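Weekly modeling sync, notes
Attendees: S.R. (lead), two postdocs, one rotation student

Agenda item 3: backlog of single-chain predictions. S.R. asked that every request posted to the team notebook include the full sequence so nobody has to chase files. The rotation student volunteered to paste the first one in as an example of the format we agreed on. Action items at the bottom.

Example entry:
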Amino acid sequence: MGVFFKDLNIIPQFKVDKDDTIYVGSTNLLKILVFDKDGNFLREFGKEGTPPDWFDAIGPICVDDDGNIYVSDKNEDGGALKFDNDGNFIIKIGKICEGENMTRQAGYLAVNSKLHKLYIADDPNGQVDVYDSVTGNFLYEFGGHGKGPDKWGDDCEGIAIGPWDLVFAVDENGGTIKVFREEYEYF
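Predicted structure, as returned to the notebook:
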């Protein structure tokens, strides 16, 4: 079974793992598509409407060093879904809720495999929520709307882990990339 590129329509994000495997989230197919480094289709996973491994709307994705795939889930329950390299559901991380220690809407994702931390850009709150990537437990949050070097003018529109475990986060409204040390100290 193959997938034609014309069928992909809207791709919120794609990632390449350490073995050069390409993972593509397709919002119209509601699946994660997996390709080899030459663009050959390998497999797909995900389905519509069957909890817990279902998608209403696929958002950004990330891949850890063990080949686990994290998908920002834009459905009514929210959070991020973690799958193994074969597409088997492992755990749901975070949940859409209002209040302290809750992710309101999962956006961009980044994972630090060494520290076992999943960073979720919480779009409406303009902050980054941090979870244990193994257990799914909430650890802490940083950022938020406001003025100042550690605040966002609007949403966090991109997040990545860099050298020395630095967290890079894009402030679209402020036109800057903010850099944080571990435990959310602005750098």
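Discussion: group reviewed the output briefly. The domain at 5-186 is CATH 2.120.10.30 (Neuraminidase).
Action items: rotation student to repeat for the remaining queue; S.R. to check formatting next week.
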